[in-house]
Amino acid sequence: MLSDIPVSPPATPLLDTIDQGAPLRDLSTAELTQLTEELRSFLLYSVGQSGGHFGAGLGVVELTVALHYVYNTPEDRVVWDVGHQTYPHKILTGRMRQMHSMRQAGGLAGFPKRSESEYDTFGVGHSSTSISAAMGMALAAQHQNIDRKVIAVIGDGAITGGMAFEALAHAGHARPNMLVILNDNQMSIGHNRGGLATYFAKIWATKTYLGMRERSKRFLEHFSFLWEWAKRTEEHMKGMVAPSTMFEELGFHYIGPLDGHDLPQLVQTLENMKDLEGPQFLHIRTMKGKGFVPAERDPVGYHAINKLEATPKGPQPATPPPAKPKPPKYQDVFGRWLCDMAEQDENLVGITPAMCEGSGMVEFAKRFPERYYDVAIAEQHAITLAAGMACDGLKPVVAIYSTFLQRGYDQLIHDVALQNLDVTFAIDRAGLVGQDGPTHHGAFDLSYLRCIPNMVIGAPSDENECRQMLYTAYQYPGPAAIRYPRGTGPGALIADDMTALEIGKAVEVRRGERVAILSFGALLAEAMAAAEELNATVVDMRWVKPLDEEKIIAIARQHALVVTVEENAVAGGAGTQVNAVLASCDLSPSILNLGIPDQYMEHGSQQEQRAWIGLDNQGIVAAITQRIELPRNLASTIPEIEIGAPIEVSR
Fold first, then answer.
1. Which of 51, 490, 564, 594 stands the most exposed, by the fewest C-beta atoms within 10 Å?
2. Cα–Cα distance between 6 and 45 in angstroms, integer?
3. Which residues have a Cβ under 8 Å from the Cβ of 555 and sit 6 or more positions away?
4. Which of 64, 37, 53, 50 has its CA nearest to residue 98?
5. Catalytic residue IDs
6. In angstroms, what is the C-alpha Rg of the chain?
7. DSSP-derived secondary structure for 138-158
8. pTM for this one?
9. Could you tell me if 338 and 350 are in contact, meaning their C-beta atoms sit under 8 angstroms apart?
10. What is the pLDDT of residues 568-578, one digit of tens each?
């Protein structure tokens, strides 16, 4: 339970000395064990203060301590995959007193970030990148004759990504001096259990065995048939008791699986492997959420937590007032629609690249298990799998985050759109996502989808429109994408019935004068608030492709200033297509495109991020009044201008 998380700072005498610059490598074995206990306690406390990921970090406390103890970091490079597991790493590398600011505006990033610390050797956010990056660093050291150790730490979920296997295959060929550590926290990979596997793993990790192996190799390499026979014998022996054969076949020397919470054994094994040449592979088993019982029992539910709210002081009412029902998140709207649609159409199948919970598919997976496909972290495969299904009569719905769809762009173009296949894309986390920052913003999907032939693209403005648009996209006999934001919407009443909307038709939701705001997607509420202050017309555009060109032209003829608003990059976004439509008709109203500027947005809350770039209602008002040089709250003072006539504006 969250009540088990400490609300006051725990005593951390050893950790305090490390944070103040004392060398970790000077600690004794007993002190290292105490340090892991302090580190785990402080991690629980700090995440309770700031919110964020902590289940994965609890599982790698011993590994993190061992890595920084054995290796000369940051000169030796440790590359972490994904970043959920790096909170202990941040605490040990001079950022302990900043942990309360995790994922908050101006605070620490939730993922490794090169500009934040020299210990963060590679910036990450998407998974399966660590082996490729570490291999690049190892080859760079080799080319420059630098004696530097390079270690990639990858989770069992991330190693399912195709990019990880591409890197493993290349490393087996190029044979750089590097170590890959597989953190198997029992979430994705099957295991060989029992005493025999543990016994042999301990033998293979000893200096005696490793020394014997290297000496035998040097001798037997002169007799190639004998070396090949010895190598195969070792591989098949390991294959009987551990999942090693595949990695050995790829060219790695495999050790494991070892207990990732046995700190002395981890330290000894890393010491033994540190100076071995060629690609090495260490397989450790850990428990996600280790040391926090609720997270051990429910590693998915405790993958991350929100900031703990302080308990109010003073007497509390005997019977607390009933909590107000929380509005559904957009992912919940999608999940409900998916189940409702599956009841109507037995050909519907749901596909996700390892984002069942985040995409709102838990209920669908329970009710329709034979039609639910979690393909693991393999976005490219997810999309081409959907294409194959669509070829032969199924109706696939791919639930995917906007930022992760970027990884399957080639497959989207060639395998789905080029063949005009009936695949529905439910694109979650479109726009600004808040605390996860620049690696997770869905800032580009309208730009990179809009240019693809055969695509239909919708951007709903509220929860009910999202449900109806998903239904519309599903009925469309070709590739269609509906993009919606993270979190909750304005609280629109969601109809039980599903009704197809007219594709490519916008809806005027407010009539004003002189200024027209064309709103694409979830910023409609902000646009409406701005319009009330400025007495502006507002159009819910709904569809990004095809655009309602007829409505755009009519609006341009009736207003002096046309403003487009979207939570997407301005470059290549919906607004640029509006500009093209007006230019093709030789209309010359003043045009103002508002969206995400040409920069990467740092982490903070979604509302803070919108305010930073002027996409909240006050920012929209400010941008419009600056363009037409209008004092705020004085819409009635707009000078009379002949509709369609040129207008003097500042550019």
1. 490
2. 5
3. 516, 518, 537, 539, 562
4. 50
5. 288, 379, 407
6. 28
7. HHHHHHTT----EEEEEETTG
8. 0.75
9. yes
10. 999 999 999 99
